[in-house]
Amino acid sequence: AKPTVTFPAQPGSSACTFENVTYTTQAGMSNYVWTIPGTVNTDYIIVSGGTSTDNSLVLQWRTTGSKTVTVNYQNANG
Q1: Measured on CA atoms in the order 54, 7, 67, 34, is the torsion positive or negative?
Q2: Which of 9, 24, 25, 68 is surrounded by the most beta carbons within 10 Å?
């Protein structure tokens, strides 16, 4: 069965532009794939994380509007 991806701590329901927002999901997994809407360095910048080995992502939104960040990963046990 595929694992259910969740964000253990939900980010705030709103964020100001140019303010750091942290997204965190389950640790100890592999092949994290973060999907962020828009264009990097135009709509957002990645401050840290967000790679295939990171269970967290810190970004700053550069544009306003409703946004959804998603993450997929593999269970470390296969």
Answers
A1: positive
A2: 25
Least Cα distance to 51 among 74, 72, 31, 77 occurs for 31
User: Which one, of 47, 32, 37, lies nearest residue 69 by Cα?
Assistant: 37
Task: Give pLDDT tens digits for 31-65.
Answer: 999 999 999 999 999 999 999 999 999 999 999 98
Torsion of CA 41, 44, 46, 49, to 10 degrees: -140
Instruction: Give Cα 37 to chain centroid, integer Å.
Output: 10
pTM summary value: 0.78
